[in-house]
Fold each of these.
Amino acid sequence: MEPARLHGDDDLFKRALEDRDERAFVELVHQYQDPLIRLALVYCGTRAVAEEVVQDTWLGALRGIERFEGRSSFKTWLFRILVNRARTHAAREARTIPFSSLETAAGSEPSVRADRFLGADHPDWPEHWSVPPRSWGSPESELLSKETLDIVLRAIAALVPAQREVITLRDVDGWDSGEVCNVLGITETNQRVLLHRARAKVRAALERHFDPDLE
């Protein structure tokens, strides 16, 4: 069985892994290893620990492939294994507080400082921007520069875990909202709020970089 034929076909992947087809496993690792490590780093303190969690995830997938029933995609099933193992590891190592409390906090905090808006008693534009977001007007090369990307990555790393996992899956790895909700076990409303808060904080970090006067 040629690896190229397996791409995107969950049934073929399942049969190949049940048969312990090494080429199928290599293709899966090539396809998912980096996104798995990125998500594991949300919960793990170092890349070495994240890689251990990902290795454990692969072992769990291989040992439990018979239980994959195809009710969700193989990708969703695999990443749910990762999330369960990573959260268990993080809780055991006391690296995080309960995710339920983080989600509550994430939903109630302001995404942008209140002083960026006009007061409710303003005669013309209540609650509109008093200090609008700076129009970066920068060439694409600037936005994609290593320095700017580093700012984005640092801003993501500084988010609370519940926000960080959502923005990592949505904006870094390009998942749709349904996949994210399925893997993380959250509602569409929570997913939307967490993503909004995360994006707002990343944008604020970029604004501070491009316009230090906003500090």
Amino acid sequence: MALKIHPINLGNMQMDSSGLVMFRNPGEQVTIPVLGFLITGGEEPILVDTGSRNAQQYEEYGLTYEVTPQMTLEYHLAQHGLRMKDIRHIVHTHAHIDHVGMTDLFPMATTVGISRRELEFAASGIMGPLMYTAADTKHLIDRLHTRGAIRLFDVDGTFEEEVIPGVAVRLSGGHTPGSISVLVETDEGMANICGDIAYDIHDQLIEPILDQASHEPTITANRAMSTLDEKKALKRALADSKFLLPSHDAPALIKGGKVVGRMLDAISNPQADATKAINYSLVASV
């Protein structure tokens, strides 16, 4: 059975537009989805990222976060005939508040994968309590003390680690020091679940709002890495991926290092399969 990837919307978050794309419309509030990804068709289903713990975490910082009944993990898993206990592996692209918030709902029998570098960074306190919350970070550390409850990836950019056949992780960096990409071998090419190295496909990659050079992405304004680190992470993802799946925007179809198609309905359709080029609408070349 071929591997499939289903984007699942676990919440909607409001942010300042310029916090997503550098210098874009400061003061304008935009709503973005908080996506997880369900990988099916392999020897075991895999969940990539688990969304946010609750809306109250954001209220303290004056941010709006919404979760409807159709945005729960239970709802999304049920659309594929699965329950929480059926998830054997969770893989985190990184440990920010909107990526690891519901991991503690899963039993210790579920192995949670994260890069060792990312867990170290989360526990360091360098980014403050909004990005890496106490509850989320403590839960990941608690998993260190139960056999098999956590897997620490030591990818450093020179090699990948396999999760199940056809699914591997590699260090992407760019967003945080320990950010990883989840690479899925599909019938049509490599799919890259890339976390937050890109927020807005159109304004960063299709029509970059700051950059004039060919194939030059516009950077985000929310990262712990250098400008060059983020650009390199994006360019590497574009160089060897057929499908690019960011955590806060609709999937993109890639050809020749450029975005040639979008799957805009994937976010609202729990059954959507992001691994078929026929499901993407072509974008105008620029």
Amino acid sequence: MSYWLFVVAGAFAIYAFVSRRLSTTAITGPMVFVTVGFIIGTNGFEIVDIEANSEAVTTLLEITLLVVLFSDAYAINNTAWRTETFVPGRLLLVGMPLTIALGIGTAVVLFTDLGFWEAALIAAILAPTDASLGQAVISNPRVPQRIRQGLNVESGLNDGVALPLVLVFLGAAEESATSGSIGGVLSFIGEEVLIAVVVGIAIGWTGAKAILAASRHGLMSPMWAQIGALALAAAAYGLATPLHGSGFIAAWLTGLVIGALTRGHVDELTELSETLGAALTMLSFLVFGAILLGPAIDELTWQVALYAVLSLTLVRMVPVAIGMIGSGLRRPSVLYLGWFGPRGLASIIFAGIVIEDADLPGVATILSVVMITVGLSVFAHGATSWFGSESYADWYHTTEQANPKAPEADEGPEHPISRRHDAPSS
């Protein structure tokens, strides 16, 4: 009988015991769980030995994405950060599209065996950032709040923004591979998105009104309010999917509508989903290390390695620098924003969608690029997060004395977009 449950549960318990202490070191949660997964997985002791495309893995990734999308969409309605779009607006509206464009160009040059839409799929999968890979970057209180908040908001929103692009590029790549009509597949995906929009808004609006009514009449306990809100997102997914809509977009919209209608009227509804999301995120990183990273390392080529390095550096940092032109932010701040754009959970889950659904000639290359890039990011960004945040904070506090009116210093109330990204600070 396998000891996998004992090992996995033990890893969670041990990490929990030292999590606060590790938050101010070069060791992060994703680093720990990816390493544990690698040791017990297919390239290690094989305590966990399941296929990457198994139903269990797919279900785990889908549930994780559903919970995370709901939590992040709910938090979008936080008016405190919506009034402060100085940094996240530039990162999302300028930096992200340029990152995808540059990622496509890089993939086209390096992977000549891939079609254009397959190259675009790589770029879209690797576009979202994941603040949980370097928690100190956004939780270290010595870092200017405007910079921390900008990275946190970007991380919370860009997975929802990237998802429709992943679906469009995936459909276009499959249709191109079968010599079909791109217009036809785009029409089909448009219908899929439309169904998701209708379902998500309908369930979100109906559910929010029910939550408000139950709260006014004292019918709902705080614990079950949180369970009910998350259940509504799951219901949206469960209805949209058999109707051939995107369940993920439906769940995201459900969270968005519930947050818009209930904020200020009902106590926080996402504490449960954020706690659950944190646990599922680390479990996903463990599974990533156990069954996804090892095979990618075995098939590693110089083109894949080069793309991974470029994806985390020039493909991210150049668009961020362009997006910050005219912002007044100084070079260390732009470098900080550019470097700390780690690739993590969303990319793993989007790749899982490809594993499950895609029938593409270049699927092996796509998955290899994504897994190697995420693996490199887990350790590169994790190892530099605390040291990097402290070094940047030292620079900021030294220069702030000479220029108290610097753009980095313009701060308002802080409201993290998702507590699953937060870490305790010393």
Amino acid sequence: MSALEGVLYGFTVALAPANLLACFAGVLIGTVVGVLPGIGPIGAMALLLPSTFALTPTSALIMFAGIYYGAMYGGSTSSILVNVPGEAASVVTCLDGYQMARRGRAGAALAVAAVGSFVAGTLGVLGLVVVGVGLAGAALRFGPPEYCALTVMGLVVLSRLSGGSLARAGVMVAVGLALGTVGMEPMSGVSRFTFGAVALAQGIELVPVAMGLFGIAEILALAETRGTLPRVASVRLRALLPTREEWRRAVPAMLRGSGLGFLVGLVPGPAAVLSTFLSYAVERRLARRPEEFGHGAIEGVAGPEAANNGATAGALVPLLALGVPFAPATALLLAALVIHGVQPGPLLVSQHPELFYGVAASMWVGNAMLLILNLPLIGLFVSLLRLPQHLLLAGIVLLALVGTYSVNNSLLDLWVLVAMGVVGWGLRKLGFEPALIVLALVLGPMMEKTLRQTLFMARGDPWVVLARPLTLAMLLVAAAVVALPPALRAARRLAPVHAPARHP
């Protein structure tokens, strides 16, 4: 079917009562998670993975996608009102959003952030359908060697973009790959690293690992800080309407941020965070009055808020079209699909059109819901910032324990949850990035399977991959990502330092 027919079909799927309810639940949870500082969409998605067993694959992905882009909406609320980003992608919004709130323009900042996110979501849906279908068609020519090289490139690129040293990132990737080898080997059926424990034969489940590394670890970190939020600025409904001059300055920034965010989302890495910084830099460079930035420039709110929402749509393209997550949040979306037995990739559009087009259409429906929720009900969401933190954290722990046990009714999963929570908390204090463990755990089995298939095809000759241009190109990109930074540092150290000339 054509792209237009696919979008129309997607709306029939998205507007089904069950999917509509899943979309509403997702965006509502995402908004709440975004408003509350510290939890984040990754932790919320990890905690809610067990709940997807009661849903169809389409409803599950619609709900998880709603949490993902809904958190981008909600994160702007606490950034503007209390100068505390509810989500990492809303850090830039604090710079000018809070300054607008201090000048009595909090309502205008919130309205521009909500409308900018809606514009970015609408344009992102169109980009997802057009680019996703085209990329899936091109990827139909992929074989096991290409997929093996793609997983290698994805892990290497993501490990470098996450920050920190190469050694630290390599340790995290190695831990994730090691966890993925526990249990029954998929091709021969031989048990590996079970140490005689029957429970380990099923392998280390992704649900307790993700919930522990993100959910429980985040709770331990929040409980350790015992921080308090500043006084919340009050916002009246009639103050939500920006002036004509504010609209004139904000609309172009929204459009630029939407396009920039979608393009950044196609690149491996923390797209939502990177896109906000890039958008802020672009708006400051193009502004007629750059001196206002940092003191309440409305472009500094409109551009980044549109960019982070556009990046969520862009990040779904490689996930659905190639089956490879380019960010930690999309890795959890992949986990939700794998749990339901759906493998995203080039065949997803033809084999599961209701899922691909349904999710794309639901993003527009969800963005419309968010626009309605975030403006009239802003007072309700602001009241969440006044909840006692100890009650909120206790409820999340209970949800994590019950949700983990309900997956397999296994005590082993509870021990894994607790262990990964402590490990994740310790890794954060040591400066490691635990998201790489989840990425490696998700991509590891796919890498191993495609590597074995490649060796079977080549009769044991690993060098055959170098004869395939696309495979060779992806491996060269991975090698360049590893080799270029130390090479550039070495070149700077060896470069001669010229002393300035002295004039009499």
